User: Which sequence fits this backbone?
């Protein structure tokens, strides 16, 4: 059996600090991603798949689904889940605002930044600001994730 020397040590609520940042790999919003999201969501509005319709509405290309942009902030695409493998209870809330349009072939750069730590008895809530910028460094989405995380076990108990 091979043991990995670079295994990420599991973190608990007390191990996090406001300002901790999690970069998520960039993704170009290709026609394939548009099609997969349309199929998964059932959203068949032509603003998301008919380029000629989009042009009549003043858009230069197909407009990304708002939720398609939000999911780019999924923490699972970065290192956060590896850090909380033993302490994560669950994602408990997600919210956000679409600030600018995202079009087919835009490249999105998501990041999560811990903005608030709410201590409870045996758990804590980690609140993260979710940001997405495009290839022009324009903020296109701003939101919030909240995760319920276990506190460290009391060793003396």
Assistant:
């Amino acid at each position: 059996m091979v043991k990995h020397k670079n295994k990420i040590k599991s973190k608990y609520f007390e191990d996090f600090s406001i300002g901790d940042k999690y970069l998520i790999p960039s993704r170009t919003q290709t026609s394939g991603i548009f099609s997969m999201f349309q199929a998964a969501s059932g959203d068949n509005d032509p603003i998301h798949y008919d380029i000629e319709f989009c042009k009549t509405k003043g858009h230069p290309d197909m407009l990304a689904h708002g939720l398609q942009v939000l999911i780019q902030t999924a923490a699972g695409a970065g290192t956060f889940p590896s850090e909380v493998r033993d302490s994560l209870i669950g994602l408990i809330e997600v919210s956000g605002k679409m600030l600018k349009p995202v079009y087919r072939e835009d490249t999105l750069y998501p990041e999560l930044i811990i903005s608030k730590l709410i201590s409870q008895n045996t758990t804590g809530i980690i609140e993260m600001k979710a940001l997405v910028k495009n290839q022009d460094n324009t903020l296109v989405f701003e939101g919030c994730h909240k995760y319920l995380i276990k506190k460290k076990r009391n060793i003396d108990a």
In short: The chain has one domain: 13-150.
